[in-house]
């Protein structure tokens, strides 16, 4: 049984029940700790909002505006760029190429350090931007204060996001969960100390979030230094120099990072567009309030498929890197099956609890009625969202984030947006029309991604691409970079610094 676990199976044979069960154990052994970690991050955000609310309505409104702005312009971009590590790290780990695994992490940190420069400029000019858009000056002023004191969080995220992908690609998920748990446990005392005891107000809430993320980074970095020494290689720092070693392969990594960023951000930003559109409906206050509740709800539900997507990306990448295309295919199929089950569960509970759910957030009856009317539609959206999110993870694991980015662009902006605007405003369907637009986007996205994964993916070809990607290693003599097999691997040297065409690795 132990030998079979490490072997691939033939294309003409269906996997056995024991193989499917084994893959489910492997997948959920990774996904459950990641889901718990995502929930802890969600709790941290809730705690920050609660302390903002304790300060007053102006502070709450300003903090909420700042949180939305920083999510759109900053955190979504950093998370998306870091996702570009998934195919490289997971396939490098599968082939035991520690040089490529470590070097890619270091280069991604440099990419994010460059990315936070324009992001910082946006954050520093939040007040001017919001006033130009017609926002209330008092709320905008408060938001700019929160945003200014959140600036150090950009630096912590340049390490935090790549470390999460680096560890997840190696199937190391429980330590991440424990690091997050310890950091979040100190989040409430930090808020109490800075906001209540030291009376720092809004800056205190922002600084508490920064310190919590810093604690996560320190704990994860400590774990990597102490327990993952084999995977951390720094040979590139000698000979050609640190700067030359870092910069030589950034272009190749960017070819994964930019499409991954677009794939994630295009979907993330669409929900913010829905919030803006809700403000143009009749009775905009009710519509925006209901939208806020629904987006918080879908964010909570998203924690499971998001964890599943990250873990299946790692599983597919690991097996492709190890030269096992049909085990990679099995991992993808099992993950998609689990995603559909999760989607059906979400449909069931949103239908059953739709009338009561909004009452957990507000006692305003009109808002409750509006939320209840849309909850079943949102449940159907999740039936598409779960498999499409998982499918995006599969595409990242096979090194094809550009395909997912194109699908998300077409589905959300060329299908979902016209349907949402047309139904809500032209056909006067109102608030529910916006969510029918989301439903149409999710259906288009899920169908397209399922077609690519189930019909258009040649797993043997993907394994060959992974072999090309991971068949290189750093020179042990520190005289520059060289391949394992000289001319045979010449086409892949670009990723480690000698330039190459995109088609050779994608």
Quick overview of this protein structure:
Its main location: membrane. This protein has 506 residues and is mainly α.
Topology:
Layout: H1 2-5, H2 17-55, H3 57-82, H4 85-94, H5 98-124, H6 126-132, H7 137-149, H8 152-168, H9 174-185, H10 187-197, H11 202-227, H12 242-247, H13 250-278, H14 284-321, H15 325-352, H16 354-357, H17 365-397, H18 401-426, H19 431-456, H20 459-470, E1 472-474, E2 481-483
Antiparallel strand pairs: 1-2
What can you see in these coordinates?
By secondary structure, this protein is an all-alpha fold. The protein folds into three domains: 29-248, no CATH class; 267-470, no CATH class; 471-504, no CATH class. Helix content is 78%, strand content 1%. It contains 20 helices and two strands. It has helices at residues 2-5, 17-55, 57-82, 85-94, 98-124, 126-132, 137-149, 152-168, 174-185, 187-197, 202-227, 242-247, 250-278, 284-321, 325-352, 354-357, 365-397, 401-426, 431-456, 459-470, and strands at residues 472-474, 481-483. Strands 1-2 form a two-stranded antiparallel sheet. Helix 2 (17-55) packs across helix 15 (325-352). It is globular, with a radius of gyration of 23 Å. The two termini are 34 Å apart. The model is unreliable at 235-241, 473-493 and 498-506 (pLDDT under 50).
